[in-house]
Design brief:
The chain has 23 helices and 16 strands. It is an alpha/beta fold. The protein binds 1,6-di-O-phosphono-beta-D-fructofuranose (FBP).
């Protein structure tokens, strides 16, 4: 790292992340449970993964210490959006392998899965790893959004691994990347390669969780950074008393970040995409809900407020979701042709002949910048929603609604001065909280043990996260157990089911029970910045979501 270090970074460099008891010993063993199966689509998944289907859950325990002690060569790759803690996963892998045998080597594949396919890597030495302990970002080896899925890509990986003599690869990524880990593990087994593939659950979005995986690393830090900023804005709102702040928060699909920030800060409005979808709430109804809060607060003398908007919202509004699905199906067939059309108006014109009448009308009613983003897809077939300015769309529609009311002589007290914000990139590379520093390090340390045990096609889990690390239990869950079949770009493919906000869960219920009061009154909470040193209740508390989900 070329930059000089800040005093905080220097102090954090010596922070030793906590490990669960079983991983602190030199006698780690693997305990295997019963064979597993996915919740749905069992036969299709069995056919797609004949060699890795049904593997048991693995638990790391203190035992005879019969894991391999030969020098191992293990690669690591960061995949998808950055999340605080990524460097600690790598440090965990490094420390675990060196503790088992100092001659082991760790290689960092550069710029994400593309580096694995192209065989671009560096050896990670103690000197390099030490520079990045407890720091945010993925800049040690960088990241990318490529996928390893085509036969020639899988074969290129096999060849590279063989040339390197690689015993294992740790793929640090979200649901799509862990799905890729399963595909690669299955392929390697089918061609007789012994390289083990282990995934680590990463994403600030918090949507890679299930009954075994309690959380993805990065969610804790990112939602705390955004909550600090929202609290600061709420202070400004109650000081300047003249602005309504519309804040869009990252989270490509699920609204976990928005819900967590709402629980931490008590805004006047927080839209939860999953509720919008479940209740079939229309864009018009969302606008009415916000306008209602604006008017009632103005009547109470408060022409200011805070509204949180989840990034994924548009995909959960039925009419826009249908439009996106129709566009995806069209793009699946004619992407090249559509993008070869000379300008945007010709694209809109052409699409209006292909879309259903209703979707064509919805598409035509959207601003051009949103129309353009809806025609883009990332390598996983997703719309790049971080580029859709939903908060501005809502500001425009609420402004129109208030003007309409005022033209009829209503809502006279309202002076609506909205400001828009988007918090996403501000939080993805923040220095990990103590929770994420410990959790990510443990995930990396455990990944190395699963490779020492010769397991493949697993994602690492750590249980009891709301308790002290002394009670944490780590292990691996077979990826095939988490798969289901979904349509992507018009094709049926196996993917890990994304965990959306559970409307019956304690976090949402708590929010729903309080939001009417928060909508009208000033109930703001100001969380302040993440603290790394000080009392545990200030420094080590996990997110409210995790505590409520686990009843802690
Ligand atoms: P991952 O799921 O890959 O961790 O990424 C999450 C995320 O930060 C989303 O919240 C956001 O929609 C997206 O990445 C933005 O991606 P990009 O980095 O390509 O702009």
């Amino acid at each position: 790292m070329t930059d000089s270090k800040s005093p905080l970074q220097q102090a954090r460099a010596s922070y030793q992340p906590k490990l669960p008891p079983a991983l602190r010993t030199g006698n780690i063993a693997v305990q295997l449970g019963e064979p597993t199966e996915p919740a749905t689509d069992k036969e299709q998944i069995r056919k797609l993964f004949p060699l890795t289907y049904g593997q048991p859950i693995a638990t790391l325990v203190e035992g005879k210490g019969d894991l391999s002690t030969k020098p191992l060569k293990v690669g690591v790759v960061l995949s998808g959006g950055p999340a605080p803690g990524g460097h600690n996963v790598i440090a965990g892998v490094f420390d675990a392998l060196k503790a088992a045998n100092p001659d082991s080597k760790v290689y960092g594949f550069l710029k994400g899965p593309a580096g694995v396919i192209k065989g671009k890597y560096i050896e990670l030495t103690a000197e390099i790893v030490d520079q990045y302990r407890n720091t945010g970002g993925f800049n040690m080896i960088m990241t990318g959004r490529d996928k390893i899925e085509k036969p020639e890509e899988l074969e290129a990986c096999r060849k590279n691994f063989e040339e390197m003599g690689l015993d294992g690869l740790v793929i640090i990524g979200g649901d799509d990347s862990n799905t890729n880990a399963a595909v690669l593990a299955e392929y390697l087994r089918s061609v007789g390669s012994s390289t083990c593939i282990i995934g680590v659950p990463k994403t600030i979005d918090g949507d890679m969780k299930n009954e075994v995986i309690e959380a993805s690393f990065g969610f804790d830090t990112a939602s705390k950074v955004y909550s600090e900023l929202i609290g600061n804005i709420a202070r400004d709102a109650t000081s300047a008393v003249k602005y309504w702040h519309f804040i869009r928060l990252m989270g490509r699909a699920a609204s976990h970040i928005t819900l967590e920030c709402a629980l931490q800060t008590h805004p006047n409005i927080a839209l939860i995409s999953e509720e919008v979808q479940a209740k079939g709430i229309t864009l018009q109804q969302i606008v009415e809900q916000i306008a209602d809060s604006v008017v009632k607060r103005a009547q109470a003398g408060k022409n200011y407020g805070i509204a949180l908007v989840p990034e994924g919202l548009v995909e959960f509004i039925a009419e826009i979701k249908t439009l996106i699905d129709e566009l995806s199906a069209i793009l699946g067939q004619e992407e090249e042709y559509i993008h070869s059309l000379p300008d945007h108006s010709e694209r809109v014109q052409y699409l209006s002949t292909k879309l259903s009448d209703h979707s064509a009308r919805v598409y035509g009613s959207l601003p051009q910048d949103i129309q353009e983003v809806l025609l883009r897809r990332d390598s996983h077939g997703n719309v790049p929603l971080s580029q859709v300015e939903t908060e501005r769309l809502l500001i425009d529609l609420v402004s129109d609604r208030i003007r309409e009311m005022q033209a009829k002589g209503e809502a006279k007290e309202v002076k609506f001065s909205p400001l828009s914000h988007f918090f996403g990139y501000e939080g993805r590379c923040a220095a990990p909280s103590n929770f994420d520093a410990d959790y990510a390090y443990t995930l990396g340390y455990a990944a190395a043990q699963l490779i020492r045990a010769g397991l493949t096609g697993y994602t690492v889990y750590v249980r009891n996260l709301t308790r002290s690390a002394d009670e944490w239990v780590a292990g691996g869950v077979p990826v095939t157990m988490m798969l289901n079949i979904e349509a992507r770009k018009g094709r049926e493919v196996p993917v890990i089911r994304k965990a959306l906000v559970d409307l019956e869960g304690a976090p949402f219920k708590h929010f729903a029970a309080n939001r009417d009061k928060w909508a009208i009154e000033d109930c703001y909470v100001y969380p302040g910045p993440i603290q790394y040193f000080g009392p545990p209740e200030v420094c080590d508390a996990p997110t409210i979501t995790l505590r409520m989900e686990k009843g802690g």
